[in-house]
Amino acid sequence: MSDGSLDWMASAGGPLRGTLEIPGDKSVSHRSVMFGALADGVSTIDGFLEGEDTRATAAIFSQLGVRIETPSPSRRIVHGVGIDGLQAADGALDCGNAGTGMRLLAGLLAAQRFDSVLVGDASLSKRPMRRVTEPLSKMGARIDTESCGLPPLRIHGGQALTGIDYTLEVASAQVKSALLLAGLYADGETVVREPHPTRDYTERMLCAFGVDIEFSPGLARLRGGQRLRATDIAVPADFSSAAFFLVAASIVPASELRLKQVGLNPRRTGLLQALRMMGADIVEENPSTHGGEPVADLVVRHAPLHGIEVPEALVPDMIDEFPALFIAAAHAQGATVVRGAAELRVKESDRLAAMAKGLRALGLQVDETPDGGTIHPAELQGGVVDSQGDHRIAMAFAVAAQRARGEVRIGDVANVATSFPGFDVLARGAGCGLAEA
Ligand SMILES: O=C(O)C1=C[C@@H](OP(=O)(O)O)[C@@H](O)[C@H](O)C1
Ligand SMILES: C=C(OP(=O)(O)O)C(=O)O
């Protein structure tokens, strides 16, 4: 896993130009390995994200007795062991930096005959797990946490689970997915209701694996005791990774980028709507479907942006894109206001605090509130920013520097490899000023 020892120096390059292939979607990649492992038969995954988070998930399934081949980069062949075929691992299962990995696995492993221990890196070890352990315990699971509900998770297998009808307290696709995975093994029906619809990859993919699951925005329902049938998965390009280039090309004069065949699941594209409200020039071309998901080329050209009040209803649909949004806001005309985004405080870092601190270090005024803040744009100066070991904060400031007056040193960027390996190479190729410090 990342050791956090790498820094970047970023500065204004030229206009951003060219056609970029963005790596595979992280959410879809995690799930494709999990469901392929549980299926009867062999599943091939194309476009698998070669990131540390998703590789950690694949390594965990190897520890659980699943054969996974890597015939070439971004391709996996998963030899499914069937719904009851996982075997106890020898040691702890290391989810690395991945909240998605740990929370989904908590649901899945709570239903196995054997015990498991889930651990993570320093950042993941500070992230709240009660949001999954509490509803899972209502289903009959036994999971011990550290105090305050923190990892490691010590999961006691061999429990008989019962389905529940549960309304999520926070809009979280990870919690929903953990309950649905446990629900596959539970007696009776599991129903998950959401305060606001979240990404539905678990539902769509279970369906592709032959599970009878009913879902609509805000609701998912399945019966326990079903089997999964192997299927091939085509992973679309990750919108959350594309987001950094959407903002970079929007703010750097004379830029024009084409981002090829990016996943446009409506539960992921809140940033597209927010940027368009700000005046961004982003056009969708060559629409198609890829692995059952809508995709299109995104053609983005520089455009003058103006500040907005980000509609609260958009927050869950752009939950990972706020670091990028803050940078767009920093370069807009007029203030941008964010509300209803307290969840950002429990991601890989406290993203509201990390973005406010970083932008202040570059000369901006940011008024932070418990669930958001107001960004007052101004010309960015050079300076030193701490990414807090958070991949999305690091990439956001690499983008910010493309319009700064001086050099920006970004500390602790190795974690970019968790979601977007090769970001720096792609960014340089497109015209960004970005080098290892
Ligand atoms: O289910 C998923 O794949 C994810 C759900 C979101 O987390 P929450 O469920 O905590 O909102 C998101 O932030 C994360 O990057 C991926
Ligand atoms: C929050 C994120 O991921 P996870 O929860 O899987 O660590 C993210 O990628 O921004």
Automatic annotation (TrEMBL):
GO cellular component terms, semicolon-separated: cytoplasm
Entries under PROSITE patterns matching the protein: EPSP_SYNTHASE_1 (PS00104), EPSP_SYNTHASE_2 (PS00885)
N-terminal signal peptide: none
Binding site for phosphoenolpyruvate: 26, 99, 127, 174, 351, 392
Top-level taxon in the UniProt lineage: Bacteria
Active site, UniProt feature: 320
Keyword Magnesium set for record: no
Protein name: 3-phosphoshikimate 1-carboxyvinyltransferase
Native species: Thermomonas carbonis
